[in-house]
Specification:
The protein contains two helices and five strands; from the N terminus they run H-H-E-E-E-E-E. With about 100 residues, the protein is of the alpha+beta class. It is elongated and about 65 Å long. The protein starts with a helix and ends with a strand.
Length: about 100
């Protein structure tokens, strides 16, 4: 009977931890001014994916906006009309038609 109790407790713990990670993944990098701006613009974006750049920072993937205007924190507009939050020039908009113009 005690073994069942231990197993049940372990299963519940794993389930709770899994559900908390599914809702909001842990941050892999410290917040910077540009990532904070990107988070504040999150509600204007149509997609909400992220990637880890070569420096290990989590960066918002290029995304289109609801209004068509550049969101806070965007660094470039891509050829397909999406906005990039890339932190350096190399590879920016590489799968989105290249950079049309730099925003900062």
């Amino acid at each position: 009977m005690q073994l069942k109790s231990v197993l049940l407790t372990a299963m519940l713990t794993v389930a709770l931890l899994s559900s908390s990670y599914a809702k909001e993944p842990p941050s892999l990098a410290p917040e910077s001014a540009s990532s904070t701006s990107a988070h504040s613009a999150e509600n204007t974006l149509l997609a909400h994916k992220h990637y880890t750049n070569k420096k290990g920072s989590v960066v918002h993937s290029p995304a289109h906006t609801r209004t068509g205007k550049a969101p806070d924190g965007a660094s470039a507009q891509c050829g397909d009309g999406s906005y990039s939050f890339s932190q350096n020039h190399r590879g920016t908009c590489s799968h989105h038609g290249g950079v049309v113009h730099w925003l900062r």
